[in-house]
Structure formats: C-alpha cells, structure tokens
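Quick one: structure for this chain?
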Amino acid sequence: MTKSQKIIRSYLNDLRKIGPKSKDFSNYISNLSTNIEEYISQNQVQDRSEIVDVFGTPGNVLSDYFMSADNDALITTARKTHIRSLVLRIISIALLVGLIVWSVYLGLIYKQIQDESVFFEETTIRINGVIQDETESNP
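Got it. Here's what it folds into:
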C-alpha cells in the first residue's frame, strides 16, 4: 500500500467513524474518495494535513454532508438508528434476565440436591463392653 493510499484510507476511516451508517453517506464517501484520489494524482501530497487543508476536517465534511443531504433521508436514518438501539437494549435486558433466572434455577437445584443427600451411619452395638458387629449372630 502506497503512502497516498494510507493517507486516503486514514482520512476516510475517520469520516466513517463519525458519520451515519447509511447508503447515502457511503455514496457520499465514495464520491469524496474519487475526488481525493484525483487530487492526489494531480498534486504531490506528502501528508494528511494537505488533504485536510483542501477537503476539510472530517467534522467539516460531515457538516457539509448534512447540509446537502435530503432531510427525509436523514430522518429515516435517525429512526432506523433509534429502532436498532432500542432492539439491542431489549435483547440485552432479556438476556440478562434469562441469565439471572437460570442462575437462580441452578442454585435451587443445587440446594435441593444437597438437602436430599443420603448419609450412611455405621451403628456399633456394645453388649457387656464388647463391641459386636451387626452382621454377627448371637448364640
């Protein structure tokens, strides 16, 4: 991977981290990537700061995207993100409750097994100070 590719990749990764997860934004980044590659091929870019000077910081690029994006698309993306977040929270809570119930159930089973344990005791019989085994017969 060449140095210019690393610069582009780093810059676009920063954009993806802070931007929305939508097809429109992915298309916007693809177009921006093409523009950056064209700029780099025409100019000798040595570091990322030159890209930032020409195209703006990732925050500025994101701001430009929001200004140019369709409001309905932004609202739809926000709703999808909210719904996705809500579903993940519900699943997490359900898993946590299930884990707690399972732990309590296993604890009750363990306690029941301990209560039902059978203990064997050996009985010793003494007749006139002599210890006799239960299996021996007396004449």
